[in-house]
Amino acid sequence: MLVLIDLQVRFVACLKAVELIKTYKRIIMRSWGKIILITIILVNTYFIVDVGRYFIYPDLAYLKKNCPSKTAFMEYREKVWQEKGIKRKITNIWVPLSRVSPYVMKAVIIAEDDKFWSHDGFEAMQKALEKDIKKKKFKSGGSTISQQLAKNLYLSPAKNPVRKIKEAILTWRMERQLSKRRIMELYLNVAEWGDGVFGIEAAARKHYGKSAAGLTARESATLAAVIPNPRRYRTDGTSRYVGNQSERIYQIMVRRGIVIPEYDDVISEKDENSQEIIGQQDQTVQEEGEQKVESIQEDQNVNSDLPDMGKVQNQ
């Protein structure tokens, strides 16, 4: 009898323990549920604030008449150098679009964004995002000049969906607040053309020892070809990709009438002919001068041989 009573007591105690455990479990699950819910809310809030601020920040209207002193990409390069202990400085020289060879703009548009003048900068990005989502990867870079400008000015080289959304917002705002000409002018002045070399003027001096205004069609095509990876691709003819790509860009410019291959030959022939004509003229002038000098000397000699008329009369 006592054994049965003891078993009943133990059984009741076990039931109470199980109930207590269930109660604690429910409390814990509710607590974890609240923690997870709070975490989700905080993450979403941070995401909304972090991304949403680009609808009003930065002030893109400032870029209508002003040039940024330093871009996000420039700061990123400096940070990498500092971490690696590399002592190097950013090279960047701003020039107006009027002091840039027209071949540069044509070559860059062909290489990077052939529909630059007709699209709003957002259509191409939408296609790139759709392509990334299908492949479940985010490898498509800034496929339009406006996107690349937004990324270079304010974002990082990171490839993730959050940055893509920020880039989309900035591109949308930029296309509505800045003219196409101004977007091109800004882009050519902030694009990277080598490790720490930013802007077309610095690139022209670095790679060709001349100003951006003096770049030829082939030089412009070569510089446009290195934009996708300016720290890897070289303009000295050692990169097969750059050689093939620059030739493709150049031939497109020829087909579109942007470049007339014979023009340079004609100009050079004119220069050579002009130099020959000038040389012949100089030689002719020199010969005429020598003849005049000889004629004067002969006249002097003749005069010296003639007797003095005054002396003859006196005699």
Features:
single chain; 315 residues; mainly alpha; Penicillin binding protein transpeptidase fold; 2 domains; two-stranded parallel ribbon; disordered C terminus
How would you characterize this protein structure?
- This protein is mostly helical.
- It has two domains: 10-53; 70-255, Biosynthetic peptidoglycan transglycosylase-like (Penicillin binding protein transpeptidase fold, Orthogonal Bundle).
- The protein has twelve helices and two strands.
- The protein has a two-stranded parallel sheet.
- Helix 3 (102-112) packs across helix 10 (240-255) and helix 5 (145-154) packs across helix 7 (180-190).
- The relative contact order is 0.09.
Task: List strands and helices in order, with pairings.
Layout lengths: L1 H51 L19 H13 L6 E2 L9 H11 L10 H13 L9 H10 L6 H17 L2 H11 L6 E2 L1 H9 L8 H9 L14 H16 L5 H45 L3 H6 L1
Parallel strand pairs: 1-2
Helix pairs in contact: 3-9, 3-10, 5-6, 5-7, 9-10
* Biggest sheet overview: 2 strands, parallel
Q: Rough shape?
A: elongated
Strand numbers in spatial order across the main sheet? 1-2
CATH class of the largest domain: Mainly Alpha
- Strand-residue proportion: under 5%
Count of helices?
12
CATH topology name of the largest domain, in short, is Penicillin binding protein transpeptidase fold
What is the correct CATH architecture of the largest domain? Orthogonal Bundle
Overall pLDDT metric:
80
| Number of strand segments | 2
The CATH homologous superfamily of the largest domain corresponds to Biosynthetic peptidoglycan transglycosylase-like
First CA to last CA: what distance? 189 Å
Could you list the spans in which at least 5 consecutive residues all have pLDDT below 50? 138-142, 274-279, 296-315
Structural class: mainly alpha
Query: What order do the SSEs take from the amino end to the carboxyl end, as H and E?
Result: HHEHHHHHEHHHHH
- Number of structurally distinct domains: 2
